[in-house]
Amino acid sequence: MRSLLSVVVALVFATTGVRATEPPAIPRDVLAKADFLKGRAAFQSRCSACHALADGANDLAGPALFGVFGRKAGTKPGFGFSPALQKAGFMWSPARLAAWLADPKGYLPDNIMLIPEAVPERDQLNMISIMMVETGAADWPRPQIAAANATVDKSKPYSERFPSFWNHMMFNTVRYAWERPGQGEYVADVYYNEDGSVTSNQKGVRGFWHIVEGGPMPAMFCYALQGLAVEPGVAVECVPVAAMSIPRFNERLWQSKGYQGQVIHGGILPGRPEKLTPG
Ligand code: HEC
Q1: Which residues lie below 8 Å from residue 60, measured CB to CB, with a gap of 6+?
Q2: For a pocket test of ligand 1, which of 43, 45, 48, 51 has the largest count of ligand atoms closer than 8 A to its C-beta?
Q3: What is the assigned CATH class of domain 27-134?
Q4: What is the pLDDT of residue 115?
Q5: Distances from the Cα of 78 to the Cα of 51, 72, 89, 193, 261, angstroms
Q6: Under 8 Å between Cβ of 133 and 139
Q7: Which of 183, 179, 182 is nearest to 261 (CA)?
Q8: How far does residue 41's CA lie from ligand 1's centre (Å)?
Q9: What is the mean pLDDT of each successive set of 10 residues along the chain, which is 279 residues long?
Q10: Which atom of ligand 1 is the closest one to the Cα of 114?
Q11: Please, are residues 219 and 213 in contact by the beta-carbon 8 Å criterion?
Q12: Atom of ligand 1 nearest to the CA of 86
């Protein structure tokens, strides 16, 4: 009887326990040899809109990640984690993070981290390697990179530090157009507001933006949008502030790749409608 029960328990565990299982460990020497610069670029563009790596407060949309490796999931003080993450019950290891980033919803169902797509395999090790160095979990050497803004005076507002960016982005309209084969385009006009919020002419679209600076990368303009009527409803990107500082107007100024290779066109139109309806 008891053995039958344990078989039943084992079966239940096998079906519900697919989530968050311990993946095979990633050897440290593999991580130590990963490509730091590629990892840094991947983290910048995919994660830094919501996460800081340096020690500090949780002042972005996601928890600050310093010390995350070896810490129990969902326990960084001062951050409101979802029940899914609070109940995950494991310590973050490189392998756990790789498994999650490879399948964000499948590995930890019901978590509330919205990323547009899984992190491709080619970026995972590189990204985790630099995350380990920057969050204090490893001390392997990293290439010396000239610090682009080692001494950033953060006491001044963005409007003074990045005046041409500010004048261009706070008073004009950014138009994104998603190509939808067979269905025409989905177009959303987006207004980046002075308080870091985002509004749109498309109902239900909202988001946030901020500038990530310090460290070896140039200052980056990072934004996240959600509620978009295209799969998977979310867009997250960081681009150099300099690229958004040149006053130029055209519906099609740049092109980026979205979820599963979607083509997204971006451009800037002069001015904004007087009355903005928040989404
Ligand atoms: C749009 C914002 C956003 C983006 C982009 C984002 N995250 Fe998150 N992240 C979150 C939120 C919100 C949580 C908390 C999730 C929850 O509570 O379910 C989180 C949680 C985490 C955690 C768990 C922290 C802990 O202490 O348990 C890790 C690790 C993490 N993110 C890494 C990443 C990495 C690596 C990337 C880039 C591939 C990334 N995140 C991109 C918002 C984001």
Answers
A1: 49, 50, 51, 52, 210
A2: 51
A3: mainly alpha
A4: 87
A5: 14, 14, 18, 26, 36
A6: yes
A7: 179
A8: 17
A9: 42 46 92 90 88 84 94 95 95 97 92 89 94 92 62 82 92 95 93 95 94 80 95 90 89 88 93 70
A10: 1
A11: yes
A12: 17
pLDDT at 277: 54
Tokens at 122, concatenated = 């080619």
What type of residue is 212? V
Nearest CA to ligand 1 atom 2: 50
Distance separating alpha carbons of residues 113 and 76, to the nearest angstrom: 15
Alpha-carbon distance 132 to 66, whole Å? 9
Annotated domain spans of the chain: 27-134, 158-269
Report which residue type is found at 126. N
| Ligand 1 pocket by Cβ (under 6 Å) | 46-47, 49-51, 61-63, 65, 68, 73-74, 76, 81-82, 84-85, 92, 97, 101, 111-115, 119, 224, 236
| pLDDT for the residue numbered 6 | 44
pTM for the full predicted model:
0.76
Report which protein residue has its CA nearest ligand 1's atom 36: 47
Residue 225: both structure tokens together: 């949008």
